[in-house]
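In this section we walk through a basic example: taking a raw amino acid sequence and producing a predicted 3D structure, encoded as C-alpha cells. The instruction is simple. Fold the sequence below.
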Amino acid sequence: MPQRSTALALGLLLSLLPIASIAAPAEKTVGERPRIGLVLSGGGARGLAHVGVLKVLEENRIPVDVIAGTSAGSIIAGLYAMGLPAADIEKIILGIDWNEGFSDTSDRRYRAFRRKQDDLDILTTLQAGLDIDGVRLPKGLLQGQRLELLLKRITTGAEPIDDFDQLPIPFRAIATDIETGDRVVIAEGDIARAMHASMAIPGVYAPVEIDGKLLVDGGLSSNLPIKAVRDMGAKLIIAIDISTPLLTADELTSVLSIAEQVSSLLTQNTVTQEIKYLGADDTLITPDLKDYSAADFDRAAEIIAIGEKATRNSLDKLSRYRIDAERYRNYRNDISHQPPLTPIIDAVVISTNSHLSQARLANYINLRPGDRFDRAQLEEDISYLYGLGYFSHISYQLDKDTDDGQTSLLIDVRKKDWGPNYLRAGVAMSGDFSGSNKINLAIGLLATEVNALGAEWDTQLGFGERSGIVSEFFQPISAASNYFVAASIRAQQRSVNRYRDGNTLLTARLRERQVAVDAGRQFGNRAELRVGIARSSSRADITTGPPQPTTNSEDGAYRLRFTYDTLDNPNFPHRGSYGQLFLSSSKSELGADANVDLGSLSLYKAGRWGNNILLGNFSYSDTINNRSSLPNLFQLGGFLNLSGYAQDELGGAYTALATLAYYRTLNHYFIKSAEIPLYIGASIEAGNAWQTRAQIGFDSLIHAGSVFIGADTYIGPIYIAYGFNNEGRQSSYLFLGRVF
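The resulting C-alpha cell sequence is shown next.
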C-alpha cells in the first residue's frame, strides 16, 4: 500500500477519543442574526487544523448554528455538534495514539483460543474466502470494526438521538454511494455509523451499508460540503479546506505518486464544484499545510497551530459574525448539556445473519435485562465475540421506545461476506549459510460455522521439507459449554538428520500417519486441556549415509495436552506467557510396539519496560523407560535452541533448555510505509540432549548465545542471527517463520 494512501487512511482515524456525552438540546434561536454554517473538509491528519479553527472561533465569540463535515472533517464536526468545546477536542487529539486505530485485528487477549493457535503455524493472517464459485475477497482491507467501536464511544449520549437536527448543533455527515457515485448527505440514524461511512476510504475500508446503500468516503463526491450546509439554512458560511494539494510535475516520479494524484484530482474536482456555492459574504479558509501529509499525526500540535493562524488571518472578514459576550454565553449554555443518566437495559436483542445459534452468540454478552448499561463491559464482550474470527462487523445501539419508555440494547452481528470458508497460505524458511536450508510451503482451508454450535474443520496441506496433510474437525458440545470433542488425521513426511562431530552422519525420510480422537475443555480463551487416544505408524528410510534397513514402527497411545497462551504477540512477544505440557503413554493393547511413556514441558514468559523486552524460556523432554527410536527422538540445535549448532543437530531421549533473550524495538521501521517494526537483540542459552538419565547434570550443559536482528512482517517474522557455543561451534542463520 502506498505510504501516503496508508497515511490518508490513518488520518481518518480520529476516533480514538475519550467519552463525550450530550443530552437532547433545548430549542435554539439566533434572533435577528443570520444563521452561520461551518464546513469542515476531509484530509487525514491535516484535518487536525479544524481544531485550531474552532479555538479561534470560540475566542472571538463566533457561533456555529449548523455544521457539516466530510471524512476526517465529519469527526470534528460531529463532536462539535454534540457540544464538545474546542479546548476539550484539542486535549483529546494530542493524547491519541493514531496508529492504534488503523487495524481490524483484535488485540490478541480477545481472540478465541483456536485463533491464537492459528498464530503459531506458518500461515499468514491474510485470508480469502473460498466457495463453489471460487476465491472471494473482502470489500476492503479493513472492515472498520475497531473504528466504529471507538466512534460509538465518543458519541456516548447521542444514541437516543437519531435525527441530527436534534443535536445541540444540527449536523450532516457526507458520504458517497459507491454504486452510483452520488453524494449522500446523512442527516439521521446512528451518528457513529454516519461518521464511519463518511471516512470509509474505498479499498481500505469496506463500504458501510446505510438504508440499503453502500457508502464510502465522502471526499469522492463532496470533500467540502458547502451545499449541504447551505441546504440546512445557513446564510453565512465559513468553509475550511484542508484537502491535499495536487503534486507538481517534478513530484510525479512513480506509479505511487501518479495513483495519489488521481485520488487528489477526484477530491479537488468536488472542492471546485462546491466553492461555487460560496457568496461574497462567506469565508473560505485554506490553512497552509503544504509541508504536512495525511499521516503526520505526530505533528498534531503544529497542525492545530496552523489552523489557528489561518483563522486569525481571516478575522477581518470573520469579525462580522461576532456576537456580544452575553449572547455568546447564552449560546454556549444552549449547546452545552449534562450527560444523560446511564439507562437500565430492559431487553437485549441480538440480530445476525450468521449460522451460529442465538444462544451461542448470547453466551458472549454479559449485560442482561435489569442491568445498568455498561459501555466498557459491552465493548469487551463484543471484542471477545469478534475474536472468534467469524464476523466482519458487530455493532450496537440503545433504542428507547417512545411509547413505554423501555430501553433495548440492540446488537447486530454480521458474518464475513467472503466466508465462512477461509483460504490462507504461508511460507517458512530456515538456513545456516552453510548449505543446510529448509523451505516449507503451506495452504490452509478453515471451514467455520459448520453448524449452529460453531464447529470448525481445519485442514492444512504442506509442501517442501515437511509435506503432507493435517486435518481436524472440532465440535463444541453445546452453545454455552466450553467442552468439545475433536477428531484429526495426519499424514506427513519430513527429513531427519543424525549428526556426529558436527557432520551429517545420515539423513532419513520419516513418513508418519496418525488418527486421533480427543475430548477437552477450553478455559475462556487462555487455555485448553485435551485428553485422547492416538493411533499412528511411521517408516524411516535412509536417504543419505551408510545403508540401513527401513525402520517401521507402530504406536497407540493415550495422550494429554494442556496449553496456556496469554502472549500479546507470538512472533516477538512483549508481554504474557505461554506454556504447554504434553504426556503420551504408548500401550501395546492400543497397537504400540512397546509400552513407552513420553513427556515434554515448554514455558515462556515475556516482560517489557519501555522499548526493552525480556523473553525467558524453559523446556524439558523426557523419554521414560529410556527407549528412543527415530520417531520419538527429541532434538535441540539451531537459533535460540542451543545456537551455534545446526538445526536439530543434537538428539536424545532427554533434552533440557533454558534461554533468556533480550530484544529491543528500534525507533524506525523495517519497511516504513507498512510500519513493520524492527528489533535487535541477543540471547544466552544452556542445555543439552542426553541418551540416558544418568548423563543429565549441570556439568554436562552446553552454554550458547546469539545476536540477532528481526522484523515482524505480514508474512511472518524474519530473523538474521549469529550463534555460538562453548563447544566451539558457531553458525549464521536466516529464518522466515517463528522460532520462539
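Looking at the output, two observations stand out. The radius of gyration is 31 Å. The chain has three domains: 3-17+31-104+143-335, 347-415, 421-544+558-568+576-736. In the next section we compare this with other chains.
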